[in-house]
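Many introductory courses stop at the sequence. We go one step further.
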Amino acid sequence: MKHFWVMVIVAITLSLVGCGTEQEEVDENPSSEIEPPSSEEEETATNDDELLEATIVLDWVPNTNHTGIYVAQANGYFAEEGLDVTIIEPALEGAEQMVASGQAHFGISSQDNVTVARSTDIPVISLAAIIQEHTSGFASPVEKDITSPSDFEGKTYGGWGSPMEDVMIAEVMKTEGANASTVENVTVGTSDFFVNTSREIDFQWIFYGWTGVEAEVRGVDINMIYLRDIDPVFTYYSPVIISSDGVVEESPELVEKFMHAISRGYEFAIEHVDEAADILIEATPETDEDLIRASQEWLSSRYKGDAEAWGHQQIDIWDTYTGWMLENELIEEDVPTEEAMTNQFLP
């Protein structure tokens, strides 16, 4: 059963929606572990102006969810904290497995992934919420005329192949008394939303901050049903920054330095939208510039939202969604929030 849920984590990580000019391909050898620096090494680095090495693995291709990381690198925030940070683009095994196994110090994940991971003894912990406002939901071209969960009946859903999707669709349809058994779930993986929905797929689960904004840039009209508007239980955090229990316990100074630099990066992205977009564009020249600028503008006020500070996570949001996952058998045992998340390393 544990192996089954590991595959679920991989599937979720690959489907949902990045640090500097130096990026590496992931080491395919799982035995290539990164040892957390000892307290003596941390002290030596501080005293001798030597930089501590740290790595962060992304959850998906670089996008505006990751802007603060690239800003922290480009503006020298990591270096000012005494860190030399390398960004790793995602591998098949996913950020949770890489961080837990010691192949990366930090990673990008989501609250639900962290909860599933900890329920299967994968020791990762959330350090900050990148975005306060949950921006995912079910999207479809307007011509499909899908404006509420009841309209899913008889339609074809394009998914990535996770049990999470079937449960979510069933739950949101239940709120309107609709029959989820009439929905055909076709696995499309990470293939293009616009291509899929122009063919046999009627709707998909997307994050508006990237794919929804891309629809705006393309001039494609879509209907968006946000999860948070269906039920407050779906206001869980996604994405989040994670580390492992080992790194947090053995190298708290490294974690604190990293999170201070990251926080400055996202605060800069909130206050200097155009400059932050320029940094991400330079770091990812293969990505559409207009999409990055539009997405950066859309996300800028949502990074912090109404939180007391960027990255802050509310205990009740974690408690509530964990309870929902347990009730719907997406996890087999309860996961204490104090083990799954912490705000202690935020400035």
